[in-house]
Design a protein that fits this description.
The complex is a heterodimer of chains A (174) and B (441). By secondary structure, chain A is an alpha+beta fold. Chain A has helices at residues 3-20, 56-63, 78-93, 111-131, 156-162, and strands spanning 66-68, 99-104, 139-145, 164-169. Chain A contains 5 helices and 4 strands; from the N terminus they run H-H-E-H-E-H-E-H-E. In chain B, helix 3 crosses helix 5 (148-164). Classes of the chains: A alpha+beta (174), B mainly beta (441). The A-B interface holds A 1, 38-39, 72, 74, 107-113, 115-117, 119-120, 123-124, 142-145, 147-150, 152-154 and B 182-186, 209, 211-212, 225, 227, 231-232, 253, 255-256, 269, 271, 273-274, 276, 297, 299-300, 313, 315, 319-320, 344-345, 358, 360, 363, 384-385, 387-388, 403, 405-407, 433.
Amino acid sequence: MSLVAHARLLKFAAIFCVAFGMAACSKNPDDANGGLNGGIGGAGALGAGSATPGSAQDFVVNVGDRVFFETDSTELTSAGQATLDKQAQWLSQYPSYSFTVEGHADERGTREYNFALGSQRAESTKNYLIARGITANRIKTISYGKERPVAVCNDISCWSQNRRAVTVLAGGNS
Amino acid sequence: MTALFSRRHFTSALASASLAPLVSTVAWAQERTLDIRGGGTFRAVPIAITNFAGDAQQAGMMTGLITNNFKRSVFLQPIDPKVFADKQINPDQAPAPEFWRTINAQFVVTGRVSRNPDGKLRTDFRLWDIATNQQAAGQTYVADPANARRIGHIISDMIFSRIIGEKGFFDTRVIFVDESGSKEARRKRIGIMDQDGGNVSYLTKGDDLVVTPRFSPSSQDVTYMSFGSSDPKVYLLNIDSGQREVVGNFPGMTFSPRFSPDGQRIVMSITQGSATNLFAMDLRSRSTMRITDTPAIDTSPCYSPDGSQIVFESDRGGTQQIYVMGANGGGAKRISFSDGARYSTPVWSPKGDYIAFTRQKAGAFGIGVMKPDGSGERIITEGYHNEGPTWAPNGLYLMFFRDPGGQAGPKMFMTDVYGRGEFPVATPGFASDPSWGPLLK
């Protein structure tokens, strides 16, 4: 899937949402606010505001636990950087948490390469958080390659959700 | 798991068998040669497999197993028994060639399975060359009934080799990953089976996520990547004892293991920071050696059959491509060049003549082969998702997995290297990451 096609699809989705005003449309990948339950580190079913400040739920629901990547890319997008800025702020506020950054790839790659790719995504996420003041010894990384998708279908609407790095707090209930 | 016996164990009974030994007399392959290479002149060899005589259940199994093997061989073409004048003929007499010529049978297989007083199965077979009306091969095997399928595969290999003039591949096993559950939370365990899908058993329980099992070419060992309580690591597992150990002591993730052709080394990927490089570990001395040193992703290493070179994939040039280098590293040379394509999972044929790979191009995932210098690329199958070829030990067939996407799962297929015939490999559930083991001894 080319980036052009991706952009076209997002544009189409935006028009679709405007035309029909559907609430479900807000669940685009960069919203990362609980619409992706079911994956490793996925949020609980709590709405915003109901999580205790400083809890793992608070982190997932109000900060956003994941960032997304373009096809075969390990570069953080601007939306991803914005999410990580919020993560860094929250993690600085609650310094007792250590956490694991899980790197994932979509299914449009081969298994072994995707382990390395997921690893690079976790690493670039980790490095960004370190640059924002989080100490390295709080952070572990792991790659799941394409083994743990959160969305399953044969088009980019799923693949774009699976190309992700998820920050999972230690002691969280996920 | 049934303990594996050597072929000698089965045939040692021959000397004490009451029937005179079946003797091969005709050097058929010297008189006629079958050109199995790619091209337009190939014609499969028609062969009639008559019903084995004797113990009805075991004989039926034997006839069916051999017929099914030959169907998938592509080079041999079993004739539909519906056109046989007699489905079963006396296995102690030469078949009347006149009839078999009328249905264009070049060879006829006859046989018998009977039970010895001690409960063991005695299996005889003969291969008859209809052109010369002489016996081209024959053998007697005595074995525990639990090994009946193996006898069928050994017979298949003898016949295949006699007619085709290439090593057999039927008496082999395949390890693979059995998959169950939703794609979001797939349960994976390592399975092992005969190459035709028979005798399935499992080597891991499914508690830990396991991928990419690879057979040792020389022992009953498997190396694979497993997720456990810490970083995912490469493990070594003995099939017979069930004993398991981590390979090497490296920080970070280790994955993509593969044995050297002599079974003495494991080459694998190790991720440190953003870089993934190749290392090899000697299994006896446990010493490790770095083979590549790049900031890129180097993975899917595979030795050449003589152990002197390694083929691997790397994105050092920007996208996944296939490279060949010396086994100690250095001098890596790119060999894959199709426009806009990404290449991965290279595996060197045991014959040395081809490298099989996965190719991603224009949104499709294909399985193909090319020569070790990158020339002669040929795509054998292409579609939504085909991945991870593995070679039969005779270098004439590939197995790979195909995933239709969605919540359906992968299944495995085999094809001859020229793409003349593709067949599904029967597995109990979804199955991926096949690794074809060596011809059993």
